[in-house]
Specification:
It is built from eleven helices and no strands. The protein has 180 residues and is mainly α. It has one domain: Hypothetical protein af1432 (Orthogonal Bundle). Helix 2 crosses helix 7, helix 3 packs across helix 6 and helix 8 packs across helix 10. The longest helix has 22 residues. The protein is globular.
């Protein structure tokens, strides 16, 4: 399937605009991270795009989320994507760079969007790593963005600051699609 076909499938499964934007943010971030690590950009970005394909169907139920997506895409994608999607939802241990990146970036994109919404400009292109780091350290800010999950990026051999920088760069490239 082409990226456009995957996006069409995503939009048929996910009706909430914010969840589609989240998937686009994770896709762009995964592509940027793959580029940084000299990995397969198409593979990583597709994992990001479809990682929450079943979210509305499962109601985010941690016992089902990710597993329904795995069933839907079995035989249509590389098995590494299926493993990464299951790992991001807590059904297996993130092992590969792609698994760990998806797990960590899933939470970080939410933190970045929240930071953007409190930034004076409310413009993603005006955000920088330092502003996000400041918000990261505020325990009461964006409490749904699991800081430990984000810090899993250190297993990739990069600092939290560098991970934020790369993720932000990916999201900034599609800021119009994100409405930020």
């Amino acid at each position: 399937m082409t990226r456009e076909e995957w996006l069409k499938l995503l939009k048929s499964k996910i009706k909430k605009d914010n969840l589609i934007k989240h998937s686009l943010a994770v896709e762009a971030s995964m592509e940027e991270l793959a580029r940084y690590f000299s990995e397969d950009e198409k593979l990583w970005s597709l994992a990001g795009l479809i990682h929450d394909l079943d979210y509305e169907e499962t109601g985010g139920d941690p016992l089902k989320h990710g597993l329904e997506t795995a069933k839907m895409i079995k035989g249509k994608v590389d098995e590494r994507i299926i493993y990464a999607i299951k790992a991001h939802a807590g059904h297996s241990e993130p092992k590969s760079k792609m698994d760990i990146a998806l797990y960590a970036v899933d939470a970080l994109t939410g933190l970045i969007v929240s930071a953007c919404l409190v930034h004076p400009t409310k413009n993603l292109t005006q955000l920088d790593k330092d502003f996000i780091m400041h918000r990261f350290k505020e325990k009461r800010f964006a409490q749904g963005a699991d800081r430990e999950q984000i810090k899993a990026c250190e297993k990739l051999g990069i600092s939290l600051e560098k991970f934020i920088e790369i993720t932000l760069k990916g999201m900034q490239k599609i800021h119009h699609d994100l409405g930020l």
